[in-house]
From TrEMBL:
Coiled-coil features, chain-numbered ranges: none
Alphabetized UniProt keyword annotations: Membrane, Transmembrane, Transmembrane helix, Transport
UniProt GO MF annotations: transmembrane transporter activity
Name assigned to this protein: Uncharacterized protein
Membrane-topology descriptor: Multi-pass membrane protein
Ranges annotated as spanning the membrane: 6-21, 26-43, 55-75, 87-107, 119-142
Family matches, as SUPFAM superfamilies: MFS general substrate transporter
InterPro entries referenced in this protein's UniProt entry, alphabetically: MFS_trans_sf
Source superkingdom: Eukaryota
Cellular-component GO terms for this entry: membrane
Keyword Repeat carried by entry: no
Subcellular location(s) per record: Membrane
């Protein structure tokens, strides 16, 4: 129960903040992932007698799951074209499934109750996640600047123009008015 509660609290906080503050979705995903790393560190480094600290670490380690809605919103906002959007959504789902299949294999029963290999693998995966999210943020920001230089800054589009772009099935590289959502 406490793990699910922590996930719900972080889900509401992170998605609420990302909805209210522009250009903060990826940053909120980085914050969420960093909190999960802190949780894994608590589980790994606290001694066995500190059950409350380890439970706190377990709850914080699980908040990574709150990134799923943000990652899906990044796909819908940052990928144009029906085929490309469907492909990206399928790839994200496949990666999620593969991670859920492979992840538990790192937790060896012979290492009970510490599971050091699993905790280290979790921290490595989360740290790589932070690295790649930073890379994604930088890439999107640089691409937005490049598009602004090529086509000028964005103007306010009418609803009909937005709908025309959306229904054209052009990709994000083909639509001059497209900018990545950070």
């Amino acid at each position: 129960m406490p793990i699910g509660g922590a996930q719900v609290v972080f889900l509401l906080l992170i998605t609420g903040f990302a909805s209210l503050v522009p250009k903060s979705r990826i940053i909120m995903m980085i914050v969420n992932t960093a909190v999960s790393v802190i949780g894994m560190l608590l589980i790994w480094k606290l001694d066995g007698n500190n059950q409350a600290g380890k439970m706190t670490g377990l709850c914080l380690g699980g908040v990574f799951a709150a990134n799923i809605p943000l990652s899906l919103s990044l796909i819908s906002s940052n990928v144009a074209g029906f085929t490309k959007k469907s492909t990206f959504s399928a790839l994200i789902f496949a990666a999620y499934c593969i991670g859920n299949i492979a992840g538990p294999r790192f937790f060896n029963p012979s290492e009970e109750p510490l599971y050091s290999t699993g905790i280290k693998a979790s921290m490595a995966g989360l740290t790589f996640g932070i690295f790649f999210l930073v890379c994604l943020y930088i890439f999107f920001a640089l691409e937005n600047r490049r598009w602004d230089r090529l086509y000028g800054s964005l103007r306010v589009m009418t609803e009909a123009e937005e709908l025309e772009d959306e229904l054209s099935n052009k990709t994000d590289h083909e639509i001059e008015s497209f900018r990545y959502v950070l």
